[in-house]
TrEMBL record:
Gene3D superfamilies: HUPs. GO terms for molecular function: sulfurtransferase activity. This is ATP-dependent sacrificial sulfur transferase LarE. GO terms for biological process: purine nucleotide metabolic process. The keyword Calcium does not apply. Keywords: Transferase. The keyword Transferase applies. Transmembrane segments: none annotated. Pfam families: NAD_synthase (PF02540).
Amino acid sequence: MDINKKIQGLKSIIREHAPLLIAYSGGVDSTLLAVLTRETIGAENMHCVLVDGPEVPRRAVTAAINQSEYLKIPLTVREGVTFSSDLQKTNPHDRCRHCKLGTYTVLKQIADDTDCKYIADGANASDLGEHRPGIEAFSSCGVIHPFIMAGITKQDIREIAYQMELPFWDKPSSACLYSRIPYGEEITYEKLRMIEKGEELLFDIGIRQARVRHHGAIARIEVLPEEMEKIIAHREQIHSFFKNIGFLYVTLDLKGYRSGSMDEVLNSSS
């Protein structure tokens, strides 16, 4: 389908579900949805909510708030629901489902307070082929996915943002810090801060897309293949810093960055 027809379909979906509350993260997907919603039904008929918690990097929160101000998107930042101690210890493979159910309770309260009829997120058609229990959880609560409903993919989203000359069109993908810890291994505040500090260093030396996967004493760094030479060039700085924040060994994953690499273990027996 022509991308302009997809955009028109998306705008029709937005109008049909106004006033609309958007689960906002500051990423390309939710930000484009927010911009198109404001353009379609006006800022007075929408609201964005950033649900904050220990799994969200501080840099991402600051960037999301600054971006919403620049784009004139109405935003509320609200503290999320903390995982129970049992979930932190077991860290199940459907962790995202539990997280989204907690997030929904926060979004629903604000939707009621702001008279928003529907809650929407930035999930897109490309997400449907991946392990995404969070999408299923949101769907079960009645959250709508306008991009999926309009048949819009991740590539479409970047193309639309580029055509609209939006500055975030090529912003690297992000994900919560929980996704850096293998399923079945306990989630702790200390691990999350180690991961966040490690990724901060990588961003500071100029790496655009990076993940620090926490495997106990081992840090497994994922970057795009074209950025591996930069890691090697800074290897002594990276190794020293990572040891200072608690890692014993520092490794570079030769396969490179890929979304959801922790999910590979779920299909390892097939």
